[in-house]
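re the bet — no i am not wrong, look at it urself. input seq straight from the record:
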Amino acid sequence: MNVGQVIELAKEWVEIYGSQIPGFCGAHLMGGLNYTPKDSSFPNYKDVDINILVRDGNGWDTHDLSYKGLILEYGSVNIEEYQSAEKVLADPRLASNLAVNSILSDPTGMLASLHKTVELEYPRRKWVLARCDAAKNSAKNSLNELSRANSPLDAYRHLAGLILDLSGLIAIAGLRPPTHRRSLVLAKNVLETWRQADLHEEILKVYGSAHLTKMQVEAYLPACEAAFDKAVEVTRTPIPFAFKLHPHVKPYFIEGSREMIEEGYHREAVLWISVGTFIATNAILTDAPENDKPPFLAAAHKFLSDLGLIAFEDIESRIQQAKELTDRVSKVADLIVSENSEIIE
């Protein structure tokens, strides 16, 4: 399938199923699909992200499903998140997605009206700065959680969140739509454009993957796949990101990571491999029989050891490095915004 065909299938799903969600007010695409040419090929291991606007929603309620060969992820989002163009423009999760025509369904015309304003105002400096401030606050929260971590796995979880926050901040400053799976690749591209390639290396060092070889990273994929399969088999208890634990989602992690490795971004791919591995490991530790847990614990321990997050002293040192990195990324983001000619007054 190409991107245009994928979008048509997404519209079809919204019309048949999404529109039946209680309180439905509209729907639009999220993510990289919005910025990909319609005639481009769309690999079946990529997902399609959709926001469903609902009245009286409770936060962002996310689900994954398979639809006619697509990995489709949709979130039910309270319409209050879209109450004004100003609110959308200041939101790093939404602004880039409504700066382009991402609309799948718009029964009231609200999304069309928002898009018209957001498209014009998106590159304006005050909104870029507002989105940067939101990303900085998210990074600050992740850093605070990292500082309170009480185990290697807890430390890693918050460190990974911080790295995603900082990568997003760099993308926002560069006027690029933030992403998750390829966040470190995008950060690298933006930093190289702004002659800050050394900062990308520093990010990888603080994360823990800078020293890893392609062979080492490739070896994580079978362990991730095994953990994912086991988690799908045993998971029963609600845990964070449990909506990802479905057989059709596995290629999103495995093949999506392999894509980056084959492109030469093996160190950047570690972040995505770890997301799949540790979501699955959490489910296994929660619901698997005790006799089944040791090999998955051992694999997680090796992962953490390779990233240098086992000893208490190492974690303490990493927290300090993360604080210094957060400060530097914030300053570089400010520099990029100040010099970016694509940003208008």
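see?? The chain has two domains: 3-121, 128-330. told u. also The first helix runs from residue 3 to 16. so pay up
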